[in-house]
């Protein structure tokens, strides 16, 4: 991805996304190991420390989101094989594939319905 885009997104996360999102964290060993941020029923961000992948933390965060919103949406870069695998295993289905204009990367829009 373009470095300028990454710098802009760092700013946007702090100044735009997080103040407008509902965010929950998950702890492991007394420290934050991951978080999920929702803007309405859209997953704006889901991150789990890689050393805790496969421990059910991402699933726990998604279950929190699902408890709040039975229908969920997420956009994930096609190159993000870890994210795509996680969402597929959770039951998300492909809605559409588009191109993210700022970088030219393919983006998948996925939906989950309970």
The largest sheet, given as strand count, sense and whether it forms a barrel, is: 6 strands, mixed
H/E order of the elements? HEEEHEHEE
Q: N- to C-terminal separation?
A: 34 Å
Number of discrete domains: 1
Helix content: 25-40%
CATH level 1 class label:
Alpha Beta
Report Rg: 14 Å
Q: How many extended strands?
A: 6
Weakly predicted, low-confidence segments: none
CATH superfamily: Gcn5-related N-acetyltransferase (GNAT)
CATH architectural grouping = 3-Layer(aba) Sandwich
Describe the structure.
- 32% of the residues lie in helices and 41% in strands.
- The chain is built from three helices and six strands; from the N terminus they run H-E-E-E-H-E-H-E-E.
- It has a six-stranded mixed β-sheet with strand order 1-2-3-4-6-5, covered by helices on one side.
- The chain is globular.
Observed structural traits:
globular, 6 strands, six-stranded mixed sheet, single chain, 3 helices, alpha+beta, 114 residues, Aminopeptidase
Nutshell version of this structure?
The protein has 114 residues and is of the alpha+beta class.
How are the SSEs ordered, and which strands pair?
Elements: H1 3-17, E1 22-28, E2 31-39, E3 42-48, H2 57-68, E4 71-77, H3 81-90, E5 93-100, E6 105-113
């Amino acid at each position: 991805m373009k470095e300028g885009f990454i710098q802009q997104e760092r700013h946007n996360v702090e100044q735009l996304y997080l103040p407008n999102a509902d965010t929950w964290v998950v702890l492991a060993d007394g420290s934050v190991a991951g978080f999920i941020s929702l803007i309405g029923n859209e997953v704006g961000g889901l991150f789990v420390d890689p050393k805790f992948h496969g421990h059910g933390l991402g699933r726990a965060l998604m279950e929190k989101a699902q408890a709040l919103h039975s229908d969920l949406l997420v956009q994930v870069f096609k190159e993000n094989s870890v994210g795509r695998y996680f969402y597929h295993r959770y039951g998300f289905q492909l809605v559409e594939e588009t191109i993210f204009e700022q970088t030219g990367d393919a983006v998948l829009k996925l939906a989950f319905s309970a």
